């Protein structure tokens, strides 16, 4: 379970130490496998070793603890503090979140930055404050730097573009500046690692190259027979973990149905539905590409990756469900 933690993230940190902090020299002697993910985790390990530390594991515990305080702060702004504490505790004991607080993988830090970024984006849809938009894009951008191939920042950008359509429907002056600022901040975190990979001669592993090849593969290799496998796989390695939370979210939408009427197209509740639908479509599409690319046995063996990838959904569903039902009246 800890293979990548030792052989990839930690090993890269030790190579950089060996090359006296010279990234280019360190990566010149490494295979493309070591370019799989950006340097967030590796740099954390590097600085621990640089300052004489021996075990960087404490960083992940700190990230986990800081996330719980942040989640409580964000949800307590919307609902009663007692309910906020209960929701935070529920997130804290979530099996996947807690388990990966004790493993030096990128999954937990990525999930945490993505969750908080999406929560701030949801707040922006109701507050329209530039502060919330900047916080959202910065946090999602850091998440994209942690795991560049899981490009949920694209989903967030698409949802933000829907605000343009919503403003058109409401006959307001559409504001493209918000989209440009959001995307620009994210690209500040995404682009440098992609340029570094091109500089090191492995341009075929950049996210634009991967996206292009995945699209071609989807068009050429799709078979209807894959859909049954896809939904069974998605249920087994993702949805079944969050099924009660998902049902709870649907119930919260029904209870708070007045918030979701189309006449309130600019409400954050409408955009949270769009966001969740796009996230699930994005996950299914990515899984389908892998099903086409690999043999059936290999694809089924990737189930653990799906489990780790979707760990961010539980806290997000808890937040949306609680705020839909319990949000304080202003």
Main attributes of the structure:
single chain; mainly alpha; 16 helices; 75% helix
Distance from N terminus to C terminus (CA atoms, Å) equals: 47 Å
**Which word captures the global form?**
globular
Oligomer: single chain
Query: SS-based structural class?
Result: mainly alpha
List the secondary-structure elements in sequence, H or E.
HHHHHHHHHHHHHHHH
The major sheet is characterized as: none
Residues in helix, %: over 70%
Number of strands: 0
Spans of 5+ residues with little confidence (pLDDT < 50)?
Answer: none
Protein topology:
Elements: H1 3-18, H2 23-28, H3 40-50, H4 58-76, H5 81-92, H6 95-99, H7 107-127, H8 130-146, H9 152-169, H10 176-199, H11 207-221, H12 225-255, H13 268-293, H14 296-301, H15 303-309, H16 313-326
What does this structure look like?
There is one protein chain. The protein has 330 residues and is mainly α. It contains 16 helices and no strands. Helix 7 (107-127) runs parallel beside helix 9. It is globular and about 60 Å long. It starts with a helix and ends with a helix.
Brief account:
The protein has helices at residues 3-18, 23-28, 40-50, 58-76, 81-92, 95-99, 107-127, 130-146, 152-169, 176-199, 207-221, 225-255, 268-293, 296-301, 303-309, 313-326. By secondary structure, it is mainly α.
């Amino acid at each position: 379970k800890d293979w990548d933690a030792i052989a990839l993230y930690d090993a890269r940190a030790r190579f950089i130490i060996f090359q006296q902090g010279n990234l280019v020299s360190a990566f010149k002697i490494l295979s493309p496998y070591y370019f799989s993910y950006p340097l967030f985790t590796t740099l954390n390990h590097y600085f621990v070793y640089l300052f004489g530390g021996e075990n960087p594991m404490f960083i992940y515990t700190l990230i986990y603890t800081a996330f719980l305080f942040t989640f409580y702060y964000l949800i307590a702004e919307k609902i009663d503090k007692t309910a906020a504490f209960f929701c935070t505790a529920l997130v804290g004991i979530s099996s996947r979140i807690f388990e990966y607080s004790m493993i030096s993988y990128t999954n937990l830090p990525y999930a945490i930055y993505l969750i908080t970024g999406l929560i701030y984006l949801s707040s922006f849809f109701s507050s329209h404050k530039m502060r919330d938009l900047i916080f959202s894009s910065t946090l999602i951008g850091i998440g994209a730097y942690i795991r560049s191939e899981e490009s949920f920042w694209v989903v967030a950008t698409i949802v933000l573009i829907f605000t343009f359509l919503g403003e058109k429907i409401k006959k307001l002056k559409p504001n493209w500046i918000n989209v440009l600022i959001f995307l620009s901040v994210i690209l500040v975190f995404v682009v440098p690692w992609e340029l570094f990979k091109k500089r090191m001669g492995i341009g075929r592993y950049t996210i634009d190259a991967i996206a292009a090849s995945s699209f071609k593969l989807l068009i050429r290799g799709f078979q209807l027979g894959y859909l049954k496998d896809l939904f069974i796989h998605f249920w087994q390695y993702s949805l079944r973990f969050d099924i009660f939370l998902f049902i709870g979210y649907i119930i919260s939408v029904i209870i708070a149905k007045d918030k979701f009427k189309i006449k309130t197209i600019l409400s954050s509740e409408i955009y949270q539905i769009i966001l969740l639908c796009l996230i699930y479509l994005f996950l299914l599409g990515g899984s389908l590409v892998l099903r086409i690319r690999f043999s059936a046995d290999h694809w089924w063996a990737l189930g653990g990756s799906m489990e780790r990838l979707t760990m961010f959904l539980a806290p997000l569903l808890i937040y949306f469900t609680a705020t839909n039902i319990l949000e304080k009246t202003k």
